[in-house]
Amino acid sequence: MSLWFDTPASQWEQGLPMGNGRLGMLVHGDIGKETIVFNEDSLWSGWFEPANDREGAYRALQLTRQLIKQGARQDEIKKAAMEFCSLHGYGKADFGAYQSFCSVTVSSGHEQKDVSNYHRRLDLKSAVSKVTYEHDGVRYEREFFSSYPAQVNVMRYRASRSGALDLNLNLHSLHKKAKITVDSDGLVIRGEVDNGKNKPEGMKFEGRLRVKVRGGRLTSGESNLQISGADEVLVIMTGATNYQLDYASQYRGASPELKNIEVLKQLKNKSFSVLKQEHTLDYQALFKRVRLHLAGTDRSDMPTDQRRQLYRESKDDVGLENLTFQYGRYLMIACSRPGSMPANLQGLWNHSNSPPWTCDYHLNINFQMNYWPVDLCNLSECAEPMVRWTTDLMKPGKKTAAVHYQSPGWVAHHTTNVWGFTSPGPARGIHMLEAESSAFLCQNIWDHYAFTGDIKYLRERAWPLLKGSADFWLVNLQENADGSLSVSPSYSPEWGPLSDGSYYQTMILWDLFEHCIKVSSILGVDEQWATELKLKQARLQPLKIGKYGQLHEWRQDQYEEGIDKKKHRHMSHLWSVYPGHQIVPGRDADLTKAAIRSLNLRGDGATGWSMGWKINLWARLLDGNRTHKLIGNFIGSRVYDNLWCAHPPFQIDGNFGYTAGVAEMLVQSHAGQINLLPALPDVWHTGEVSGLKARTGIELSIAWKNGSLRNVELLSSIKQSVPLTYKGKRVQVDLPKGKKIHLDSHLNVSSSDSSQLR
């Protein structure tokens, strides 16, 4: 299972990405002068700003709420709201942006016109990339991987004829305050991010490139290395910053030099074969958990760029649909591992010091979408950076809640960074008034428990986050004239007025309260508090169906006028369908019908991430063929040649949304039961999948033929009883811990397991 090409990459979005969570690289495969872009996931401009929270902002919040209640003009409301926003943050120097680390160029002296049999490949089964070609009768091979065990990027150059390698290695940086030197082992880059004149000190970084040559000769210039007549060249790259994910330390930690020395010390002169073996075993322990086979056309014998072009016209290549699914899992392993930062808007990969939207953590769907597939697709370990980062974010979030809202608990808004920014604003105006963003984060935090069943995680890590968010909202819900509760100011991302009637916020809070009520029961804690929460949940503004048959986006009828003629990339009023679970087909018929109407009104065209969301929405609405149409649209028009999601520009969230959506088509477990093949499209008539997860801690293998279930196997991490459904039939199955239970096409448990069926 590979992405492969018969030409070098001509642009950034055609390169092949690799990563170990913390370190990334992108290989273009150029012949004469290969450029490999390196990234380290914590390297940012900006700084920790103690004055993020604006003293006196609460008075502006009170005025904003008063103006909304009085029905004031939007310009008056917005003016008051901007006085509530921070004077720092997004769009300001202190907020910063994710940075490029460095790049290495490897010049071979060969020209593309003189080579033959060129091949560039990324093997998803091993997370190894190769470039091969022939020149003057010699076969040249370059091999690349990012090792999580060793915490280095590895490159090896070989030739079929002894002494045929002549290479020139250079390091390059986009940073003004970077210096490249030569030492006894290779090249070193040291620098500091330039925050601008009279600004606080920038983040420090260091990278070390180590070179081992077999045969031939290694010499050095002022800032480059020359290799002549070699048989094989091994290049190892590591990098670090002085960043530390810790609010109390203002996000400053040990020097990058000390970190790099420790990494290189642990290598202990390991050979390429040992490094590769360790890398492969580590990676495959995660990637091999899920296997998907779809019967039908598989054009894996075509270069991926040509294959995608043909798919755009024919929509006939289930193999490419499967490849794109597994590519999302590959990217998750590559950009989010324990100890790393969480995946940002571009995951890990960045070739600019001014990337789109600062390559930050957008919290009104993009960051959360990154982690939609992580548990469902059996990569729960990859959720650790998201959980660890959110736990730290709660600390500045408590200060923001106290200063801006005079409230307990914690809060975060539209966007944040590595510096713990949780305040509203300032740039992008009312976009920044999305205080529900922290509650949205709690959906991911809850789901990690729901899929794993890890009580220790629930008690020690998830519960403080969920309860802290709910504490904030218990005192910030506003009462409407009819006695219902809503959020003010509220805003339906990323359009519409500031009001007290957007449903997006109260849909998120309905789920947050539901989860908190469950946790209180599971842990046996805060029972009186949970009772209060249940009363508040029941008073949240009730969902409403409009005159066009649509699900209302706002409580107020006037904001819905002409909504049947408007398109928008956000489907925020459908949050309760996915990723929420307030609306469930089969249980909520009228609301489901209205949700379908609203989704139809939004149309099938969208940006990349939006299309990823629509795939999940149609899957939750149990329409397999419509879901597959969106899959076709996504691959046909919203991915680049290297299958990265195109917003455009590149944003990785759509890749993860796609992968989650494919899994949702095959198994769903959000509504208190496991639903098998709930949104199977006609074109996927025959296939099998193994390793997908259901809540709580259940691994499934499912096979089907001609559109009908053949058999299913369940393996639970805990002893439990679960309802299982398929095409309207429902059975209750008792699952022992650690023992596989087999069911046939009629959901009958095999004779040896028959005692498990009730």
TrEMBL record:
Q: Where is the Glycosyl hydrolase family 95 N-terminal domain?
A: 3-244
Highest taxon, organism lineage: Bacteria
Q: Which InterPro entries does the entry link to?
A: 6-hairpin_glycosidase_sf (IPR008928), 6hp_glycosidase-like_sf (IPR012341), AFCA-like_C (IPR049053), Alpha-L-fucosidase (IPR016518), GH95_cat (IPR054363), GH95_N_dom (IPR027414)
Q: Which residues form a coiled coil?
A: none
Q: Which residues form the Alpha fucosidase A-like C-terminal domain?
A: 668-735
GO BP: any one term = carbohydrate metabolic process
Q: Which SUPFAM superfamilies match?
A: Six-hairpin glycosidases
Q: Quote one Gene Ontology molecular function term.
A: alpha-L-fucosidase activity
The protein's UniProt keywords, in alphabetical order, are: Hydrolase
Q: Where is the Glycosyl hydrolase family 95 catalytic domain?
A: 272-666
Q: Which Gene3D superfamilies match?
A: 1.50.10.10
What is the name attached to this protein's record? Glycoside hydrolase family 95 protein
Q: What is the lineage of its organism?
A: Bacteria, Pseudomonadati, Verrucomicrobiota, Verrucomicrobiia, Verrucomicrobiales
